[in-house]
User: What shape does this take?
Amino acid sequence: MTGAEELGGKLLEGVSRSFYLTLKALPQGLREPLSLAYLLARAADTMADTIQVPDAVRLTCLAEFERRVRLPLRDPIAEGVLVARLMVDFVPHQEDAHEARLLERLQEALDVFHASSESQKAAMVGVLGPIIQGQMLDIQRFPGDGNLRALATRQDLDDYTYLVAGCVGEFWTRLCATEAEGSFNDGVSLDEMVARGIRYGKGLQLVNILRDPGKDLKLGRCYIPEEALQTAGLGVADIQADPAKLMPLLTPWKKLCLEHLQEGIRYLDEVKNKRLLYATALPLLLGIKTLALIEAADWRSLEAGVKVSRGEVSKVLLEAGVAVLRKGGMRKLAERYLGGR
Assistant: This one.
């Protein structure tokens, strides 16, 4: 068993929840680099989300982590200092034992990363850089001082969804093209697939934003841009005083989310490899199901957070397993889910 395979077992399952199902379904040549990239991105996410640690420390550690994967030459001393700091400053604050274990094993993950092929490392650097940049922007824009802040413009939101998720669609697509020949149908260009993959990723991130606005507001974060609030005659102070006023402002972002997910369906149309098609479809199908819950929810439900039940997840896995065996079956399944919204 390789180091990547070992890290991609129980540790990956513990921190990735439903996405583990996607990674597990991937063809062998793609499973290890995508799983490793996910673990490294999740480690950065854990650093960013450990709000008990001062903003300046989180930003310093994230910047150092980005350097450790970006720079071509390893610096074992710098890596050791970073890992030691995470053990002291971050691990004791983890309520989830899996998140703590991930930080404890970060050195192993970095070892596997540096042992990867040059093409795989380049692809992983290409996705980790934007993700960490997005996480650092979040800390800078939303300092944990008890005050609510909003993104300034619609473009800021679009940029954010690219940095933390759209870039994943691009990474996924490019890695499939280089590491698994025959991933996509003949005649479709890589540029087309990258553009669709980016929109697919943005759609999944909008699902995340829309399904749990209450949690973000409590953390002082409003991802609905200030210019949208102003168009509705509201300010950040109005939302802080009465969070339910945000509810009608979510409508255009639900529409945009749906449009992005429909690009995800077009992405699926061009995936040739059956295992890859199944793995690629699962987040989309669950995203469509979650969007349906969002659209049906009242503000109280959204404040509590909505998610697809375990029973419904199992049903999606089964139906996707049948659909992948039929030509055009995955599109029909996704459209049926869309029709049930």
Observations:
- The mean pLDDT is 93.
- The beta strands are 149-150, 221-222.
